[in-house]
Amino acid sequence: MTQPTGATVEFPVDVIRPILLEQFSALDDQLAGVRDDEWETPTALPGWTVKDVVAHLVGTESMLAGIAAPRVERDVRALPHVRNDIAAFNELWVESLRPVPGPEVLARFREIVARRTDELDAMGQEDFDAQSNTPVGPAPYGRFMRIRVFDCWFHELDIADALGRTATEGGPRAELAVTEIFGAVPFIVGKRGKAPEGSRITIELSGPLARTLHVEVQGRAAVVPELSGPATSTLAMDSGLFVRLAGGRVHAADRIDEISLGGDVEVARRIVDNLAFTI
After folding, report:
1. Among candidates 115, 121, 139, 126, which has minimal Cα distance to 64?
2. Mean per-residue pLDDT for 153-163?
3. Would you state the pLDDT for residue 7?
4. Rounded to an integer, what distance in angstroms lies between the CA atom of residue 108 and that of residue 122?
5. Tally of domains within the chain
């Protein structure tokens, strides 16, 4: 079905697709410089090395290409970092590729990215609007592709952090990726941070993704353009730290000297201690 003239497209293929393909290229650039002895470097993700992260990316894109998950002898659900069905699925691919040398896993990544690029290039807006099973439940396929930008961008950071290198933390790829994080802020503040009724929260981010977020709790927590009164709690930090806290890569207790808390500090600390929302 063609979108009516002037209609708003929630997940535009002409925006999301080129950014996702650019993200694939950025990952390839990052991985091209990985030395043989660096593939087994641990990352911030429990149980996963740099090579394991790439294996996970191979697995997700393979699934999207219709390739069945491999069978493995190990009971992946018994691993301490596997806590749900999605994690168990991810671990099947990781486990299956653990005996494979890093350069060969990279070759697998390049092969599946080439296949997925052809598939994505053949898609139109109708395909992106079609309902799909996604990590957040039933949603348009375009939402899944935006989640893919988020996941791949975050794993670019994981690899760079593990190897002591830099990655792109601002710009179009980062802005599209963190849409998933900023969309979860009411949940983080209201449900995980348990901000009480009547709270007015300001989160001030500096750095590559600098912005000010305002959240009010009136029945439910919601992001608002501006607060109805003075903030009851404030949090300020670099955007790079914020996204890593939201992704569960670091813990607030270990970086608290880099975070400024104000107003009702107890509420602010509870929010920052519970920023992690990823599955």
Report:
1. 115
2. 98
3. 61
4. 22
5. 2
